[in-house]
Amino acid sequence: MARHDIDFSELLDVARLKEECEAVFTGRDCPLLETRATLLPILKRASAEGRQKARDLLNKDGSGLNCARRISWVQDQLICILHQTIAAHLYAEGEAIAVAAVGGYGRGTLAPGSDIDLLFLLPEKNTDNMRKAVEFLLYVLWDMGFKVGHATRTVEECIRLSKTDMTIRTAILECRSICGSQMLVSELETRFDQEVVADTGPEFIAAKLAERDQRHQKAGDTRYLVEPNVKEGKGGLRDLHTLFWIAKYYYRVRETTELVKLGVLSREEARSFEKADDFLWAVRCQMHFLTGKAEERLSFDIQREIAESLGYNARPGLSAVERFMKHYFLVAKNVGDLTRILCAALEEKQAKEAPGLTRRVISRFTKRLHKIPGTVKFVEDRGRITLADPEVFKRDPVSIIRFFHVADITGLELHPDALKRMTRSLSLIDNGVRENAEANRLFLSMLSSRRDPALMLRRMNEAGVLGRFIPEFGKVVAMMQFNMYHHYTVDEHLIRSVDALAEIDQGKAGDIHPLANKIMPGVEEREVLYVAVLLHDVAKGREEDHSLAGAKIARKLCPRLGLNPKQTELVVWLIEEHLIMSMTAQTRDLHDRKTITDFAEKVQSMDRLKLLLILTICDIRAVGPGVWNGWKGQLLRTLYYETELLLSGGFSEVSRQERAQVAEEALAKALSDWTPKERRTYQKLHYQPYLLSVSLEDQVRHAQFIRDADRAGQALATMVRTDSFHAITEITILAPDHPRLLSIIAGACAAAGANIADAQIFTTSDGRALDTILINREFQVDEDEMRRAGTIGRMIEDVLSGKKRLPEVIATRAKSRKRNKTFTVPPSVIIANSLSNKFTVIEVEGLDRTGLLADITAVLADLSLDIHSARITTFGEKVIDTFYVIDLFGHKVTNENRQGNISARLKAVMADQEDELRTGMPSGIIAPSPAATVSPSPSRRAKAGA
């Protein structure tokens, strides 16, 4: 619907507004400041009413473009009435100026929070009163709260500046008269067209596309970020505007529909342009209305409300917000398609006009076709692959796949004209093409290419080919997952996973994952691995578990791709179990033998273990920036090596007592420079669990730490160590033991802003605790991280010694962080006795918040449970904490009633409903017992000696 087809009368009573403004001047002569102050409430009320009606109509008809046009019209009326009032009562010479809208406002569209971009055109012979009229109008607009971008120039100045400044040229391109002298605006349009636009099309196009590329690079160069920038991001409104600027500048058109008559766009493509524009404007307007400001990032905390405002409903496997965001990303993809089509048309038109262009332009746009060895269907045009003739795809649809294969082999870029024809030929990819052996052979060759398979997959996906060729993949194109963990849509995640695999395959990034790089050259089933990596999340968004559903898809798809039955079953297994290694490494105690035996039973062979390790690394690395770190790599390597020992028959069958004896002797040997008395005293401090699970290197460090503390007479001490490769910082605490010690330490870490990743908890025979807390690294530079770790260590010491009160420091930290109301994670508690031979494993899952770990460990202490080890894992807004516990007598928790009580208490604290923890304080605040720094814990002594 065009602007002139909208009934604007219901938005604003223009006649009444004029009368109210005129009444300000009736019978009185007010100073300028008082006049502005009197006009202000009248205009503000009219603006608010008009915008509210525009919002109501948006909620009613859902048209973003109409909403933007309505707001623009309201703004026009305010400016017109204000200008007329100024000219009639303050500065009569103001009538001779022209007030014009430029930029987005010049198109007759305006978002609720947008800047008001104005151009005040003055005649060549202008006066101070004309400038004062402009100044008065601007001050009123500023007083109303508008952010106004403005320029006051003559026509001559506009023409001169637009020749050298591309931003000014673009703004004037969309100049639209609002009020005042129409003659000045007409003069500007005529001279601009004749003196600036003429013969400068290629220059303008190159500048705008370069500007677009730079903007994309700044925004992350992907349209599949799960919190996209609706205005500036790839596939957003600015990209559509760039297309319109180029079309308007080069083809001299004013509406996109005119491009259909010129043969640049098909009718369907023109409709796609209008739909994309309308949808993106609807999203942007809703964002501005909802936040009350010019918010351009579609963040998690507003996505759900906007989805509801736009009328999206949940469907099996996808929530309403996920359906809305999938629509958003599909629109963003359509914008990319339109960009390619328009660029192809421009290049073809400019090539035809080459004889009239300069030598530089001739060099750029004249076709220079060369044969490509091995094919007659495609040719090279200045480093880009294109079609030998327009009917190639129509005669042989398999050539759509072959096109990308040849591009992969030759390293040629893709010609926009070929991509345009491909986009228009997608319907040719039917079951015949999908089942074609040659098409599948070519695809598998590209997928497992040693060059850049992710680049080809991304290009196929951008062109819409990948989703047509593999319909199951097509279902996850543009699909987002509404959580803070996944940074990209599912299809982008899968392609980035392949990219990570190719990097490993090419021997790169060995410093990031050395074991995978070492294993990869010996992997015989490369194609199996590439297929599994591409398809591991292909069943996301279904009611069935995506691992199981994905395995079913793989069982059908792999034979089509040319894999034999053995390879197919291996892909099926990898997809079905693609999460097991990651979850085992991050949520289980890897020093517990049962963890390793259970995992080995699932894996069963070294070939599977190698492939699963590499798949797991690729999956984690493709989740988003900062998700992969060295600590996760170390956990995976530990699990790999321990499992390798068991699968290869090297796992020790020697009894725990014998292994502990060997470890004790090794420690004594390592402390050979100590006196015999010191050595004997220290050897008696540790129980079996410590000797069997802590490395000799760390045992020696701990020994020196304890000796130094004893010599200094310190009952309480901390030691810090940082590791940049593992992206982890270690804080070791020596303190008198107490049942609530871990809870207090966790609370101190939360108060200091530290995220705990792991905890090793040991008790010495003299009743002291030797606890090691591993926190996620925050700073790149070791010196900075050591200072941070020292601060955290001092916080722990201050809380344990009573210098600081934990309730106060946690409350201060909690106030500085907003409670997450965007996401909901139902509290879950799993209590299992089958995951460890010695301990009950308690796994809790819920919404993360400040002080949660302190609360959970406090509840476990209240329930008389001793924690042997804890694994803390955060997936965005969700936390999964695993605790290996025993009761006061050193036994597992087997009583069902007691298990039920534990579960209920933990769910209550995760839901933030625990009864103020008996201290009268809000949940999230743990008060340390005065005994925390005095008396040892009989329970922990019992546990350690068990």
UniProtKB/TrEMBL annotation:
Residues 920-946 are annotated as: Disordered. InterPro entries: ACT-like_dom_sf (IPR045865), ACT_dom (IPR002912), HD/PDEase_dom (IPR003607), HD_domain (IPR006674), NT_sf (IPR043519), PII_UdlTrfase/GS_AdlTrfase (IPR013546), Polymerase_NTP_transf_dom (IPR002934), UTase/UR (IPR010043). Keywords: Hydrolase, Magnesium, Multifunctional enzyme, Nucleotidyltransferase, Repeat, Transferase. Its cofactor is Mg(2+). The keyword Nucleotidyltransferase applies. Its EC number is 2.7.7.59, 3.1.4.-. Residues 1-373 are annotated as: Uridylyltransferase. One of its GO terms (biological process) is regulation of nitrogen utilization. Uridylyltransferase (UTase) activity is inhibited by glutamine, while glutamine activates uridylyl-removing (UR) activity. It catalyses: [protein-PII]-uridylyl-L-tyrosine + H2O = [protein-PII]-L-tyrosine + UMP + H(+); [protein-PII]-L-tyrosine + UTP = [protein-PII]-uridylyl-L-tyrosine + diphosphate. Residues 730-811, 841-920 form the ACT domain. Residues 927-939 have a biased composition (Low complexity). It holds the Pfam family ACT_ACR9_3rd. SUPFAM superfamilies: ACT-like, Nucleotidyltransferase, Nucleotidyltransferase substrate binding subunit/domain, Poly A polymerase C-terminal region-like. One of its GO terms (molecular function) is [protein-PII] uridylyltransferase activity. Residues 490-606 form the HD domain. Modifies, by uridylylation and deuridylylation, the PII regulatory proteins (GlnB and homologs), in response to the nitrogen status of the cell that GlnD senses through the glutamine level. Under low glutamine levels, catalyzes the conversion of the PII proteins and UTP to PII-UMP and PPi, while under higher glutamine levels, GlnD hydrolyzes PII-UMP to PII and UMP (deuridylylation). Thus, controls uridylylation state and activity of the PII proteins, and plays an important role in the regulation of nitrogen metabolism. Has four distinct domains: an N-terminal nucleotidyltransferase (NT) domain responsible for UTase activity, a central HD domain that encodes UR activity, and two C-terminal ACT domains that seem to have a role in glutamine sensing. Belongs to the GlnD family. NCBIfam families: PRK05092.1 (NF003467), UTase_glnD (TIGR01693). This is Bifunctional uridylyltransferase/uridylyl-removing enzyme. It comes from Rhizobium deserti.
